[in-house]
Amino acid sequence: MKKVLIVLSIEKPNAKKICKEIEAFLSAKGIDSFVYKYDGISHSPELNEDYDLAISLGGDGTVLFTARYSAPRHIPVFPINLGRFGFIANIEPKEWEGELLQLLNGKQALHKRMLLSTSIKRKNKEIVKYEALNDAVVSGSGIAKLINLDISFNGISFGVFRADGVIVSTPTGSTAYSAASGGPILDPDVSAFVLTPISPFSLSNRPLVLPSSGQMKIKILPARVKDIIVSIDGQEMVSLQEDDEIIISESPNKVKMAGCSPDNFYKALRSKLGWSGSSSPKLN
């Protein structure tokens, strides 16, 4: 390993101190590092792509930003949690040195996480394309948010959804906005994504788990709400127009992440989502 990118969240109080420690640690091992200061506003950084590792130093939002940058460049991500929740970034500040040393010595496995590919078409022409580690959300804004969406999967129509919006999430993103909207939680190794309606007009519109080998199409239909957007990982926003189409499928790219073993996923369910109520139930 020769060069490491450190994505530093400037919003976290202790981030700079830990960043200096990481820089010194890497320098002592003859590894160069470059610090990119992430301000919480998503944009495409102009960075040298010749990195062997990207260290995310912040919360889950910093991981999402780092993952979208790193995945197409095949750069592994080492996520250190400085946030309040840290479901994806689950390497704690007191653990980073030991975990990073194991990674450098080849003793820590990297786990692949699926990404969504989201293409937006207007008048049959692609206007923009994004990748997402968590989700793509189509929604209205304002007081009256109800929008009309024609949704199909592999060419088979699901009909018209009337809702405040829909969430299409990866297994990683199934623990985020989708779960808060009543969607199921998927193991990160499951090859699927989840379609979750947001406050649907019909009670029969329930979340669906769909194979990631397929393709979903969401078409914007006429509605009273004119301000409709698609949000990528809650960070990239695109305004939509009537008749726009959002094409969602599994990206050919995957993000390789440290500290994201199946054991850590289920530990996070217990400790951060209170999945079992108690991590060590008492026996009578």
TrEMBL record:
Active-site residue numbers: D60
Q: What is the purpose of this protein?
A: Involved in the regulation of the intracellular balance of NAD and NADP, and is a key enzyme in the biosynthesis of NADP. Catalyzes specifically the phosphorylation on 2'-hydroxyl of the adenosine moiety of NAD to yield NADP.
Residues that coordinate or bind NAD(+): D60, G61, N134, D135, K145, R162, D164, Q235
Q: Which GO terms describe its biological process?
A: NAD+ metabolic process; NADP+ biosynthetic process
Cellular location of this protein? Answer: Cytoplasm
UniProt GO molecular function: ATP binding; metal ion binding; NAD binding; NAD+ kinase activity
Any matching Pfam family: NAD_kinase
The record's similarity note reads: Belongs to the NAD kinase family.
Gene3D superfamilies for this protein: Probable inorganic polyphosphate/atp-NAD kinase, domain 1, Probable inorganic polyphosphate/atp-NAD kinase, domain 2
Q: Name one GO cellular component term.
A: cytoplasm
* Main subcellular location of this protein, as a coarse class: cytoplasm
Name the EC number(s): 2.7.1.23
Give me the reactions it catalyses.
NAD(+) + ATP = ADP + NADP(+) + H(+)
* Keyword flag NAD: yes
Q: What is this protein called?
A: NAD kinase
Q: Which UniProt keywords apply?
A: ATP-binding, Cytoplasm, Kinase, NAD, NADP, Nucleotide-binding, Transferase
Tell me the PANTHER family matching this sequence: NAD KINASE
What's the cofactor? Answer: a divalent metal cation
Superkingdom of source: Bacteria
